[in-house]
Amino acid sequence: MPSDKKEIYLTFDDGPVPGPTEFVLDELKKHNLTATFFCIGDNIHKHPELFKRIMEEGHTVANHTFNHLKGWQTSLSTYIDNVKKCDQEIAINSSSPVVSYFRPPYGRITRAQIKALDNKKIVMWDVLTRDYDATLSPERCLKQSLNATRNGSIVVFHDSIKAEKNLRYVLPKYIEACLIKGYTFTSFHG
């Protein structure tokens, strides 16, 4: 994103999931921050109250497919149907009939899929925290994430069981370190 301001776009993929998502929401609330949650439709379906809490607390919700599909391994029609199914799940559980933002799982998407999703703003990232990597120590995860952060960074954490160990250590320290460095946090809107 434009780097003329000391702004960071904090994003969370793969939720909502009881435990990790609640932890993230509590941490964001402590600092009065908003973020963008790239939600999996099936998780919204399983945890609608948690999804509603994300929205009630002023965060942006976005589409991350219904089943966390790998774009390069999925046919065009199956992929687009899965994105639409996630949109429908969001619409059922919110007052927002249109979700503008989309993030392809694994950052993998074909040109045909991009073209078919021309009504979406596809959001990638420049800081992948790798919080989901069990071989990465929480300390190293934090250090690498902070070292990669710069003005306009789009940072990806995961509110998932797989990422929970690193997430619980890294997120609070990451937020505090960035605030000390004078960064502000923002979310995608619209």
Automatic annotation (TrEMBL):
<dbReference type="GO" id="GO:0016020">
    <property type="term" value="C:membrane"/>
</dbReference>
<keyword id="KW-0479">Metal-binding</keyword>
<protein>
    <submittedName>
        <fullName>Polysaccharide deacetylase family protein</fullName>
    </submittedName>
</protein>
<dbReference type="GO" id="GO:0046872">
    <property type="term" value="F:metal ion binding"/>
</dbReference>
<dbReference type="GO" id="GO:0016810">
    <property type="term" value="F:hydrolase activity, acting on carbon-nitrogen (but not peptide) bonds"/>
</dbReference>
<keyword id="KW-0378">Hydrolase</keyword>
<dbReference type="Pfam" id="PF01522">
    <property type="entry name" value="Polysacc_deac_1"/>
</dbReference>
<dbReference type="InterPro" id="IPR011330">
    <property type="entry name" value="Glyco_hydro/deAcase_b/a-brl"/>
</dbReference>
<dbReference type="InterPro" id="IPR050248">
    <property type="entry name" value="Polysacc_deacetylase_ArnD"/>
</dbReference>
<dbReference type="GO" id="GO:0005975">
    <property type="term" value="P:carbohydrate metabolic process"/>
</dbReference>
<feature type="domain" description="NodB homology">
    <location>
        <begin position="6"/>
        <end position="186"/>
    </location>
</feature>
<dbReference type="InterPro" id="IPR002509">
    <property type="entry name" value="NODB_dom"/>
</dbReference>
